[in-house]
Amino acid sequence: MAASSNMCNGMGNNLRRNMAGAHSDTAPQQLERGEVALQRPFDKPELITKRLGGLEGWSTIEIPDNSLGKGSRESFSGEPHRTNIQSMDKETKMNAKILITGATGNLGRAVVQALVQHNFNARAATRNPEKLEATANVEPVKFDYTVADTLDTALAGVNGLLLIAPPMDPEAPAKLLPVIEKAKAKGIGRIILNSALGADQNEQSPLRIVERVLMQSGVPYTIVRPNFFMENFSTGFIAPMIKHQRGIFLAAGDGKTSFISTRDIAAVIAVAFAEKHAGKEYNLTGPEAIDHAQAAKLISEAMGQEIVYHALPEEAMLKGARDNGMPESAVQYLGALYSAVRDGYCAAVTDDVKHVTGQNPVSFRAFVEANKARWQ
Q1: How far apart are CA 290 and CA 259, in angstroms?
Q2: How far apart are CA 157 and CA 38, in angstroms?
Q3: Which residues contact 43 (CB under 8 A, 6 or more apart)?
Q4: Which of 56, 124, 188, 359 is placed for a possible disulfide with 183 were both Cys, Cβ 3.0 to 4.6 Å?
Protein backbone atom coordinates (compact mmCIF):
# COMPACT_ATOMS: atom_id res chain seq x y z
CA MET A 1 0.00 0.00 0.00
CA ALA A 2 1.08 3.50 -0.56
CA ALA A 3 0.81 5.50 2.56
CA SER A 4 -1.54 9.68 2.74
CA SER A 5 -3.87 10.05 1.28
CA ASN A 6 -0.73 8.39 2.03
CA MET A 7 -3.24 4.40 1.60
CA CYS A 8 -0.24 2.99 4.15
CA ASN A 9 -1.24 7.83 5.34
CA GLY A 10 -4.26 9.55 6.58
CA MET A 11 -6.89 8.35 8.94
CA GLY A 12 -9.77 10.32 10.25
CA ASN A 13 -10.44 12.33 13.33
CA ASN A 14 -12.04 9.41 15.15
CA LEU A 15 -9.11 7.04 14.75
CA ARG A 16 -7.25 8.15 17.85
CA ARG A 17 -10.32 7.33 19.95
CA ASN A 18 -11.07 4.11 18.11
CA MET A 19 -8.00 2.31 19.39
CA ALA A 20 -7.13 3.96 22.67
CA GLY A 21 -10.02 6.00 24.01
CA ALA A 22 -7.81 9.06 24.05
CA HIS A 23 -9.16 12.16 25.75
CA SER A 24 -11.80 13.93 23.69
CA ASP A 25 -10.33 17.32 24.44
CA THR A 26 -7.35 16.53 22.26
CA ALA A 27 -7.72 18.04 18.80
CA PRO A 28 -8.48 15.54 16.03
CA GLN A 29 -5.48 14.40 14.07
CA GLN A 30 -4.91 12.28 11.01
CA LEU A 31 -2.87 9.24 10.19
CA GLU A 32 -0.56 10.19 7.36
CA ARG A 33 1.37 8.21 4.82
CA GLY A 34 1.18 7.39 1.11
CA GLU A 35 -1.90 5.52 -0.31
CA VAL A 36 -1.48 1.75 -0.21
CA ALA A 37 2.22 1.10 0.12
CA LEU A 38 3.25 -2.28 -1.19
CA GLN A 39 6.71 -3.75 -0.98
CA ARG A 40 8.15 -4.60 -4.37
CA PRO A 41 7.73 -6.89 -6.16
CA PHE A 42 3.97 -6.40 -5.93
CA ASP A 43 3.03 -10.05 -6.34
CA LYS A 44 -0.38 -9.97 -4.68
CA PRO A 45 -2.51 -7.39 -6.49
CA GLU A 46 -5.61 -9.40 -5.65
CA LEU A 47 -5.10 -8.60 -1.95
CA ILE A 48 -5.53 -4.86 -2.42
CA THR A 49 -8.17 -5.21 -5.12
CA LYS A 50 -10.24 -7.39 -2.80
CA ARG A 51 -9.79 -5.28 0.31
CA LEU A 52 -10.30 -1.90 -1.39
CA GLY A 53 -13.05 -2.87 -3.81
CA GLY A 54 -16.45 -1.23 -3.62
CA LEU A 55 -15.27 1.95 -1.92
CA GLU A 56 -16.46 4.38 -4.57
CA GLY A 57 -19.13 5.78 -2.26
CA TRP A 58 -16.76 6.45 0.62
CA SER A 59 -16.65 10.09 1.65
CA THR A 60 -13.51 11.70 2.97
CA ILE A 61 -13.49 12.17 6.73
CA GLU A 62 -12.94 15.87 7.17
CA ILE A 63 -9.89 16.82 9.24
CA PRO A 64 -9.53 20.31 10.74
CA ASP A 65 -6.87 22.37 8.99
CA ASN A 66 -4.95 22.60 12.23
CA SER A 67 -5.29 21.85 15.92
CA LEU A 68 -4.85 25.36 17.23
CA GLY A 69 -8.34 26.02 18.43
CA LYS A 70 -10.75 28.79 17.49
CA GLY A 71 -9.19 32.19 17.04
CA SER A 72 -5.61 30.91 16.93
CA ARG A 73 -3.24 31.79 14.12
CA GLU A 74 -0.46 29.52 13.01
CA SER A 75 2.98 30.66 11.93
CA PHE A 76 5.39 28.52 9.95
CA SER A 77 8.41 28.18 12.16
CA GLY A 78 10.85 25.53 13.20
CA GLU A 79 14.06 24.16 11.75
CA PRO A 80 13.50 22.49 8.38
CA HIS A 81 15.79 19.83 6.97
CA ARG A 82 18.79 21.57 5.44
CA THR A 83 19.89 20.70 1.92
CA ASN A 84 22.44 22.10 -0.48
CA ILE A 85 20.26 23.60 -3.25
CA GLN A 86 22.32 25.50 -5.80
CA SER A 87 20.72 24.97 -9.21
CA MET A 88 18.33 27.94 -9.12
CA ASP A 89 19.79 31.32 -8.21
CA LYS A 90 18.39 33.27 -5.27
CA GLU A 91 16.78 36.00 -7.37
CA THR A 92 14.95 33.44 -9.52
CA LYS A 93 13.62 31.63 -6.46
CA MET A 94 12.53 34.88 -4.81
CA ASN A 95 10.47 35.66 -7.90
CA ALA A 96 8.92 32.19 -7.96
CA LYS A 97 5.68 31.45 -6.13
CA ILE A 98 4.69 27.90 -5.22
CA LEU A 99 1.14 26.89 -4.25
CA ILE A 100 1.06 24.26 -1.52
CA THR A 101 -2.25 22.47 -1.01
CA GLY A 102 -2.86 21.00 2.44
CA ALA A 103 -0.49 23.64 3.79
CA THR A 104 -1.55 23.25 7.42
CA GLY A 105 -1.06 19.49 7.54
CA ASN A 106 2.12 17.90 8.86
CA LEU A 107 3.68 17.66 5.43
CA GLY A 108 2.32 20.95 4.12
CA ARG A 109 3.80 22.90 7.03
CA ALA A 110 7.18 21.22 6.56
CA VAL A 111 7.18 22.02 2.84
CA VAL A 112 6.31 25.68 3.42
CA GLN A 113 9.23 25.94 5.86
CA ALA A 114 11.63 24.24 3.46
CA LEU A 115 10.64 26.40 0.50
CA VAL A 116 10.90 29.63 2.50
CA GLN A 117 14.31 28.58 3.80
CA HIS A 118 15.44 28.33 0.20
CA ASN A 119 14.02 31.73 -0.73
CA PHE A 120 10.88 30.64 -2.53
CA ASN A 121 7.60 32.44 -2.01
CA ALA A 122 4.97 30.05 -0.67
CA ARG A 123 1.24 30.37 -1.19
CA ALA A 124 -0.25 28.28 1.60
CA ALA A 125 -3.62 26.86 0.56
CA THR A 126 -6.10 26.00 3.30
CA ARG A 127 -9.82 26.00 3.97
CA ASN A 128 -9.25 28.54 6.76
CA PRO A 129 -6.59 31.05 5.69
CA GLU A 130 -7.51 33.37 8.56
CA LYS A 131 -5.81 30.89 10.88
CA LEU A 132 -2.46 31.33 9.15
CA GLU A 133 -0.06 34.18 9.70
CA ALA A 134 1.00 35.96 6.52
CA THR A 135 4.70 36.81 6.26
CA ALA A 136 6.96 38.30 3.62
CA ASN A 137 7.36 34.86 2.03
CA VAL A 138 4.11 33.11 3.00
CA GLU A 139 0.74 34.08 1.58
CA PRO A 140 -2.28 32.20 3.00
CA VAL A 141 -5.06 31.59 0.48
CA LYS A 142 -8.46 29.92 0.74
CA PHE A 143 -8.71 26.64 -1.11
CA ASP A 144 -11.30 23.89 -0.96
CA TYR A 145 -11.48 21.02 -3.45
CA THR A 146 -15.27 21.15 -3.25
CA VAL A 147 -15.50 24.90 -4.08
CA ALA A 148 -14.44 25.45 -7.69
CA ASP A 149 -14.08 29.24 -7.39
CA THR A 150 -11.30 28.88 -4.83
CA LEU A 151 -9.12 27.04 -7.36
CA ASP A 152 -8.83 29.99 -9.77
CA THR A 153 -7.82 32.35 -6.99
CA ALA A 154 -5.32 29.94 -5.50
CA LEU A 155 -3.60 29.26 -8.83
CA ALA A 156 -3.47 32.87 -10.02
CA GLY A 157 0.11 34.01 -10.56
CA VAL A 158 1.89 30.91 -9.28
CA ASN A 159 4.80 29.20 -11.02
CA GLY A 160 4.58 25.80 -9.37
CA LEU A 161 2.12 23.57 -7.55
CA LEU A 162 2.53 20.99 -4.81
CA LEU A 163 -0.52 18.78 -4.86
CA ILE A 164 -1.08 16.92 -1.58
CA ALA A 165 -3.94 14.48 -1.92
CA PRO A 166 -6.64 14.47 0.76
CA PRO A 167 -5.93 11.65 3.22
CA MET A 168 -7.21 8.18 2.34
CA ASP A 169 -9.68 9.27 -0.27
CA PRO A 170 -10.90 6.79 -2.92
CA GLU A 171 -12.39 9.83 -4.64
CA ALA A 172 -8.98 11.46 -5.07
CA PRO A 173 -9.19 11.48 -8.89
CA ALA A 174 -12.45 13.46 -8.82
CA LYS A 175 -10.79 16.08 -6.60
CA LEU A 176 -7.29 16.24 -8.03
CA LEU A 177 -7.75 15.83 -11.78
CA PRO A 178 -9.61 19.17 -12.18
CA VAL A 179 -6.72 20.88 -10.36
CA ILE A 180 -4.20 19.38 -12.77
CA GLU A 181 -6.34 20.39 -15.73
CA LYS A 182 -6.73 23.96 -14.46
CA ALA A 183 -3.03 24.25 -13.64
CA LYS A 184 -2.15 23.16 -17.16
CA ALA A 185 -4.60 25.65 -18.66
CA LYS A 186 -3.02 28.45 -16.61
CA GLY A 187 0.46 27.53 -17.77
CA ILE A 188 1.77 26.43 -14.37
CA GLY A 189 5.37 25.45 -15.02
CA ARG A 190 5.76 22.53 -12.64
CA ILE A 191 3.59 20.17 -10.57
CA ILE A 192 4.81 17.94 -7.77
CA LEU A 193 2.35 15.30 -6.61
CA ASN A 194 2.57 13.83 -3.13
CA SER A 195 1.30 10.31 -3.72
CA ALA A 196 1.93 7.20 -1.64
CA LEU A 197 4.49 4.45 -1.40
CA GLY A 198 3.32 1.57 -3.57
CA ALA A 199 0.64 3.46 -5.47
CA ASP A 200 2.46 2.58 -8.68
CA GLN A 201 2.06 -1.13 -7.92
CA ASN A 202 -1.71 -1.09 -8.43
CA GLU A 203 -3.07 0.57 -11.56
CA GLN A 204 -6.55 0.72 -9.99
CA SER A 205 -5.32 2.67 -6.96
CA PRO A 206 -6.96 6.14 -6.83
CA LEU A 207 -3.61 7.85 -6.53
CA ARG A 208 -2.13 5.80 -9.36
CA ILE A 209 -4.94 7.10 -11.57
CA VAL A 210 -3.95 10.65 -10.58
CA GLU A 211 -0.27 9.85 -11.22
CA ARG A 212 -1.04 8.58 -14.71
CA VAL A 213 -3.05 11.66 -15.64
CA LEU A 214 -0.29 13.96 -14.39
CA MET A 215 2.35 11.99 -16.29
CA GLN A 216 0.35 12.36 -19.51
CA SER A 217 -0.61 16.01 -18.95
CA GLY A 218 2.42 17.53 -20.64
CA VAL A 219 3.21 19.61 -17.53
CA PRO A 220 6.72 19.02 -16.10
CA TYR A 221 6.13 16.86 -13.04
CA THR A 222 7.70 15.07 -10.12
CA ILE A 223 5.97 12.37 -8.07
CA VAL A 224 6.95 11.59 -4.47
CA ARG A 225 5.61 8.50 -2.73
CA PRO A 226 6.26 8.58 1.02
CA ASN A 227 5.58 5.89 3.58
CA PHE A 228 3.81 6.50 6.94
CA PHE A 229 4.89 9.74 8.60
CA MET A 230 6.89 9.62 11.84
CA GLU A 231 4.87 12.66 12.86
CA ASN A 232 1.84 10.40 13.42
CA PHE A 233 3.55 9.57 16.71
CA SER A 234 4.36 13.15 17.75
CA THR A 235 1.44 15.26 16.52
CA GLY A 236 -0.88 12.82 14.79
CA PHE A 237 -3.42 10.22 15.83
CA ILE A 238 -0.97 8.05 17.83
CA ALA A 239 0.24 10.95 20.01
CA PRO A 240 -2.82 11.00 22.34
CA MET A 241 -2.50 7.24 22.85
CA ILE A 242 1.08 7.66 24.01
CA LYS A 243 0.47 10.76 26.11
CA HIS A 244 -2.76 9.72 27.81
CA GLN A 245 -2.81 5.91 27.64
CA ARG A 246 0.93 5.18 27.67
CA GLY A 247 0.38 2.77 24.83
CA ILE A 248 -0.02 2.26 21.09
CA PHE A 249 -3.24 0.48 20.13
CA LEU A 250 -3.32 -0.79 16.55
CA ALA A 251 -3.99 -3.94 14.52
CA ALA A 252 -0.54 -3.77 12.93
CA GLY A 253 0.62 -7.17 14.19
CA ASP A 254 4.40 -7.42 14.02
CA GLY A 255 4.56 -5.90 10.54
CA LYS A 256 7.37 -3.44 9.97
CA THR A 257 7.09 0.05 8.49
CA SER A 258 9.87 2.27 7.14
CA PHE A 259 8.51 5.44 8.80
CA ILE A 260 9.73 8.74 7.33
CA SER A 261 9.77 12.25 8.74
CA THR A 262 7.92 14.98 6.90
CA ARG A 263 11.10 17.07 7.10
CA ASP A 264 12.83 14.61 4.79
CA ILE A 265 9.89 14.55 2.39
CA ALA A 266 9.85 18.36 2.38
CA ALA A 267 13.57 18.45 1.68
CA VAL A 268 13.11 16.25 -1.38
CA ILE A 269 10.26 18.45 -2.61
CA ALA A 270 12.29 21.64 -2.15
CA VAL A 271 15.18 20.16 -4.14
CA ALA A 272 12.81 18.98 -6.86
CA PHE A 273 11.43 22.50 -7.27
CA ALA A 274 14.82 24.19 -7.13
CA GLU A 275 16.59 21.78 -9.47
CA LYS A 276 13.56 21.40 -11.75
CA HIS A 277 13.38 17.63 -11.58
CA ALA A 278 11.12 16.65 -14.47
CA GLY A 279 9.67 13.21 -15.10
CA LYS A 280 11.09 11.90 -11.83
CA GLU A 281 9.42 9.54 -9.35
CA TYR A 282 10.80 9.10 -5.85
CA ASN A 283 9.80 6.40 -3.34
CA LEU A 284 10.55 7.90 0.06
CA THR A 285 11.19 5.97 3.26
CA GLY A 286 13.15 6.27 6.44
CA PRO A 287 16.51 4.51 6.83
CA GLU A 288 15.07 1.36 8.42
CA ALA A 289 11.86 -0.56 8.94
CA ILE A 290 10.65 -1.19 12.48
CA ASP A 291 7.50 -2.66 13.97
CA HIS A 292 5.28 -0.88 16.48
CA ALA A 293 6.74 -2.80 19.42
CA GLN A 294 10.17 -1.49 18.49
CA ALA A 295 8.72 2.00 18.10
CA ALA A 296 7.18 1.75 21.59
CA LYS A 297 10.52 0.58 23.03
CA LEU A 298 12.40 3.51 21.51
CA ILE A 299 9.82 5.96 22.85
CA SER A 300 10.01 4.30 26.28
CA GLU A 301 13.78 4.64 26.38
CA ALA A 302 13.64 8.31 25.43
CA MET A 303 10.89 9.14 27.93
CA GLY A 304 12.09 6.98 30.78
CA GLN A 305 8.55 5.61 31.01
CA GLU A 306 7.14 2.37 29.66
CA ILE A 307 5.07 2.66 26.51
CA VAL A 308 3.44 -0.60 25.44
CA TYR A 309 2.32 -1.62 21.98
CA HIS A 310 -1.01 -3.47 22.11
CA ALA A 311 -1.46 -5.55 18.95
CA LEU A 312 -5.23 -5.48 18.57
CA PRO A 313 -7.15 -8.10 16.58
CA GLU A 314 -8.39 -6.52 13.39
CA GLU A 315 -12.03 -6.93 14.35
CA ALA A 316 -11.43 -5.18 17.68
CA MET A 317 -9.91 -2.20 15.89
CA LEU A 318 -12.69 -2.11 13.31
CA LYS A 319 -15.39 -2.45 15.98
CA GLY A 320 -13.90 0.54 17.78
CA ALA A 321 -14.01 2.48 14.54
CA ARG A 322 -17.68 1.60 13.97
CA ASP A 323 -18.60 2.37 17.58
CA ASN A 324 -17.12 5.85 17.12
CA GLY A 325 -19.22 6.55 14.04
CA MET A 326 -16.73 5.91 11.26
CA PRO A 327 -18.53 5.16 7.96
CA GLU A 328 -18.43 1.48 7.01
CA SER A 329 -16.53 2.15 3.79
CA ALA A 330 -13.87 4.00 5.79
CA VAL A 331 -13.78 1.15 8.30
CA GLN A 332 -13.02 -1.26 5.47
CA TYR A 333 -10.32 1.09 4.21
CA LEU A 334 -8.77 1.09 7.67
CA GLY A 335 -8.79 -2.69 7.68
CA ALA A 336 -7.07 -2.78 4.29
CA LEU A 337 -4.35 -0.40 5.46
CA TYR A 338 -3.36 -2.41 8.49
CA SER A 339 -3.71 -5.68 6.63
CA ALA A 340 -0.98 -4.35 4.35
CA VAL A 341 1.17 -3.41 7.35
CA ARG A 342 0.74 -6.86 8.90
CA ASP A 343 1.61 -8.54 5.60
CA GLY A 344 4.88 -6.63 5.30
CA TYR A 345 3.98 -4.36 2.41
CA CYS A 346 5.07 -1.22 4.27
CA ALA A 347 8.58 -2.44 5.09
CA ALA A 348 10.45 -1.45 1.93
CA VAL A 349 13.49 0.81 2.41
CA THR A 350 14.86 3.04 -0.35
CA ASP A 351 17.77 5.48 -0.67
CA ASP A 352 15.84 8.10 -2.64
CA VAL A 353 16.02 10.74 0.12
CA LYS A 354 19.82 10.62 0.15
CA HIS A 355 19.94 10.39 -3.64
CA VAL A 356 17.99 13.65 -4.00
CA THR A 357 19.14 15.68 -0.99
CA GLY A 358 22.61 14.29 -0.34
CA GLN A 359 21.68 13.57 3.27
CA ASN A 360 20.47 10.48 5.07
CA PRO A 361 16.87 10.56 6.29
CA VAL A 362 16.38 10.92 10.03
CA SER A 363 16.15 7.69 12.01
CA PHE A 364 13.17 6.89 14.20
CA ARG A 365 15.46 6.96 17.25
CA ALA A 366 16.65 10.48 16.43
CA PHE A 367 13.08 11.58 15.72
CA VAL A 368 11.94 10.29 19.12
CA GLU A 369 14.78 12.06 20.93
CA ALA A 370 13.84 15.34 19.26
CA ASN A 371 10.13 14.97 20.08
CA LYS A 372 10.02 13.26 23.48
CA ALA A 373 8.75 16.40 25.23
CA ARG A 374 5.48 16.09 23.29
CA TRP A 375 4.52 12.96 25.23
CA GLN A 376 5.26 14.29 28.72
Answers
A1: 8
A2: 38
A3: none
A4: 188
